[in-house]
Amino acid sequence: MICSPKYSGIRTDSLNVNNIAISSDTLVLVDSRDSRAYHVFDVNTGRELTDKPLYHSQELMNVALDQYGSTNERCLGFVDKNNDLFLVQIRHSNPLTKLKKLGGMVTTIMWHDTTNMLSALQDGRFTVWYYPRAVYIDTELLPQSKVFKDAGEFGKNPEIASFLGHHCTLRRSDGSLVSTAVSPYPTILQNYVSKTSWDDAVRLCRFVKDAALWASLAAMATAAKELNTAEIAYAAINETEKVEYISYIKDISNKAARNAEMSLFCKQTAEAEGTLLQAGLVYRAIRLNVDLFRWNRALELAVKHKTHVDTVLAYKQKYLQDFGLEESDNVFLQYSKEISVDWTTIQNKINMELESERGK
Prior knowledge:
Structural class: alpha+beta
Shape: globular
Distance between the termini: 52 Å
Number of strands: 15
Oligomer: single chain
Number of helices: 12
Strand order of the largest sheet: 1-2-3-4
């Protein structure tokens, strides 16, 4: 025995396959008294990873942990009482901020034994997500990276018993087992990606010519900030605008700015801003918020770092003029009285910032 995890009120007699999930490093137990709550433990120490249990809005009916990947990215999949399927990065510093819904009308789920594939019975269909973590990277890739087949052949109310290799075994209501095949190519693809063999991954997708495989590669390459591969994969599924944006990112000479743009591409605004500020790229951090129309945050950064306050005011004024609006924010009204706006001066400062950035 490695450890003996405990929490107040635990009832071992109530534990079963549906309310306990375990991987090589993490254990999740649904609370015995309140099935909306779940406890997360470190397998090696038996220590509970959060000060108090995590709560979901509905009772949890089925929980499962992925078996592949780094500890910090460990994902818990669970089905609630409404038959909605959710994914949460259970080792994140604030896990509930990483709670994402994958789909509805789900009855049972099972992770693959050696990859990040997730199988489920959903609305009368057997469904497999080749790379469910795409929900954290590009939500538009999620429906493109899954495959499904009719589950009528498995009888009424089947359950997934195992998901090993290229086969998934389901248990019918009468107790008999039936197996269904799953494409071997997602496993091969994820093995290539784990070894950073991006050229081999691209060659595989070109050979198979499967849109779901290309979408999975696009998500994995984007997560790894492998821009060349991501560009090829997005082009293969006709995502023209994203190909153009990735091309724009590739032309950015500063590595920190490039990483920040990739975080923004994945809709991780706070991470993008933090990357820029940590690298001393204050103007880019301010401009990021301006481009997202987060005017108050842009002004807050400008005032805090005592730079480009006039830039923020100028872009806010231009925005209001374009839409025929008047300024109503008291903070902006105050700074507008104290600071004059001169577009020539502002443009010169921006050019100096960009020139300075190239030298970093």
